[in-house]
Amino acid sequence: MTVRKVWIAAGAAVGGGLAFVMLLVVGVYVVAGNLLNGAGGTVALAKGSVPAAYRPLVQKWGNLCPAINPALLAAQLYQESGFNPRAVSPAKAQGIAQFIPGTWATQGIDGDGDGDRDVWDPNDAIPSAASYDCHLASYVKDVPGNLAENMLAAYNAGAYAVIKHQGVPPYSETRNYVKTITTLAQSFAAPVTRLDPSRQAAGAIEFAQKKLGTPYLWGGEGTPEQGGRFDCSGLTQAAYESVGITLPRVANDQYNAGPHPSRGELLPGDLVFFSDDLTNSRAIRHVGIYVGGGYMIDAPRTGAVIRFDPIDTPDYFGATRVTEDGAKALPTSV
To answer: Do residues 71 and 82 lie in contact, with contact meaning Cβ atoms separated by under 8 Å?
Structure first.
């Protein structure tokens, strides 16, 4: 929703842009790594996906045991608190890892060795979250199936339920939780191979292309009352809504709607993001839809119109290949 300065040779962009805007690369690629087969040490975090202040902790403690990896731990923290160390839930869960007081009393550890266990201190809470995951995994290690999935199910439903059902229990809440965290983990892991193209990309681009020339409106979601105008994340949200994918409203939340292709692996339809802080996805303030050739369609700022803009600027943060499962896994509030 926020504004980014852009520099563009508009005539060249529009003239060339219409020629490539609907060209999609066709092919079959391998989805980045299997994040649920243990081997936590093989999983690197995607650039900027975890705030820089917490990245070393997540990378270190995400390798505590074979049931977890850094991306999985990051997904849990994001789902629980959006990396907010002062978060408090209606159920009185506290801190970045959202421990309830009773669980913290038995599972909290002194992660930084300073002599106390502080649920509000990420240096204690993040190690405690990893330790708790591994503690649960030890209870279900002999249960058939995937250890990480069984651990997540134990986190949600209790180890007894996992042991009783010899795997993820048939509770919709638990199965949804397991799917949510494992899907989110793909957004926090740095891809190790090429990513599948998005099946809905062409439709999202077509929607955005039809809005070229529409005046920008801060907070705009394209409603009739707003004269069909958009801001940056309103445009991307509406574009993907047109192909049946519901994205969050603001740009930094949209970043976790799928895995993150590198600059050289961008395909039309990828969302591209911009920030003044290139170490923290929570600081993202602008988003557009990549159309190829180094250009995107975006709603840039007040006084401008929806247009083609270059993406290779100093504040380019990264990209997301939106997936239906990735969008569904995002928390409703972070």
So the answer is: no
For 302, other C-beta atoms within 10 Å of its C-beta total 11
> Which residues are CB-neighbours of 172 under 8 A, at least 6 positions away?
none
184's tokens: 């989110």
Is residue 322 within 8 Å of 245, Cβ to Cβ?
Answer: yes
What's this model's pTM, rounded to 2 decimal places?
Answer: 0.80
Q: Express each pLDDT in 138-193 by its tens digit.
A: 999 999 999 999 999 999 999 999 999 999 999 999 999 999 999 999 999 988 77
Question: Which phi and psi (to 5°) does residue 22 adopt?
Answer: -105, 10
Q: How far is CA 60 from CA 65, 77, 125, in A?
A: 11, 14, 13
Contact by Cβ (8 Å): 138, 127 = no
CB count, 10 Å around CB of 218? Answer: 15
β partners of residue 319: 272
**Phi-psi category of residue 39: left, alpha or beta, with phi > 0 → left and psi -120 to 50 → alpha:** left
CA distances from 12 to 9, 18, 210, 268, 295 (A): 6, 10, 19, 18, 11
CA 214 to centroid of chain Cα atoms: 29
Q: SS3 letters for 259-310? A: CCCCHHHCCCCCEEEECCCCCCHHHCCEEEEEEECCEEEECCCCCCECEEEE
Chunked in runs of 10, what are the mean pLDDT values of the chain (334 residues)? 31 38 32 43 85 96 96 96 95 96 96 96 98 97 97 96 97 96 94 80 96 97 96 97 95 94 94 95 96 96 97 96 93 68
Beta strands in the chain (DSSP E): 271-274, 286-292, 295-298, 307-310, 316-320
Q: Which long-range contacts (CB under 8 A, 24 or more apart) does 87-93 make?
A: none
* Residue partners of 191: CB distance under 8 A and separation at least 6: 32, 33, 46, 259, 260, 261, 262, 265
